[in-house]
Specification:
The protein is α/β, with parallel strands linked by helices and 213 residues long. It contains three helices and twelve strands. The chain starts with a strand and ends with a strand.
Length: 213
């Protein structure tokens, strides 16, 4: 069984990391169900294991945390849905590359619920949308870590964050591309709308329907 829960308010990053670590430990020992945790953070930056210090343009703008996940710098904050994905890959072929691909597909399928065409790009992790002016903007990020074949960290999708906050970093080390959100694309999507689509599309992508806590 896969459980899912939604936290209200803004969850401090340290709290989220501690709770993820604890849940991963009990999942790996077969003492708890897998979990999808939907939440929002206060404004902050996280650094993945490949982060380049030069990509942190405004180090004093928001707190910066070493995330321990893959990837580079990213921003989290209000108006952005973060989903921490704690799944047992021992049940899913122990294939991390396929797992990341499945996460991307989950995002793409979810965006399609709102008639947004999300796309992959070779050499660029995350999901992108093509704009009318020929520009490509990132709408969703992902970064995972795996411990004893249990995943944690996960994905983030921009619903209506302050896009100006991304200017304090070079998001994912790619300074030639922009960042967008569902509302920036002209879609009046709420967080509840997105959550409903996320849970529905999770079953479509992974073949299992999560149970709400």
């Amino acid at each position: 069984m896969i459980e899912w829960k939604t936290s209200t308010g803004l969850i401090p990053y340290e709290q989220a990391l501690a709770e993820m670590e604890a849940r991963v430990a009990v999942i790996s020992n077969n003492q708890a169900a897998e979990l999808l945790w939907l939440l929002e953070h206060p404004p902050l930056y996280t650094a993945g294991t490949s982060a380049d210090q030069n990509d942190l343009l405004e180090p004093d703008r928001f707190p910066v945390f070493d995330a321990g996940r893959g990837g580079q710098y990213t921003y989290h904050g209000p108006g952005q849905r973060v989903v921490y994905v704690m799944l047992d890959l021992r049940k899913r072929g122990r294939d991390v590359r396929k797992f990341v691909c499945d996460l991307e597909q989950w995002i793409i399928d979810t965006l399609a619920e709102f008639n947004v065409v999300g796309e992959r790009r070779d050499g660029r992790v995350g999901v992108w949308v093509a704009r009318d002016n020929g520009r490509e903007d990132k709408i969703a990020a992902l970064g995972v870590r795996v411990r004893k074949w249990v995943s944690f960290h996960g994905i983030s999708i921009n619903v209506e964050p302050d896009l100006g906050h991304f200017k304090g970093i070079v998001p994912c080390g790619l300074d030639q591309f922009g960042v967008t959100s569902l509302v920036d694309l002209g879609l009046p999507v709420t967080m509840d709308d997105l959550d409903t689509a996320l849970i529905r599309c999770f079953e479509q992508t992974f073949g299992e329907m999560p149970v709400k806590l």
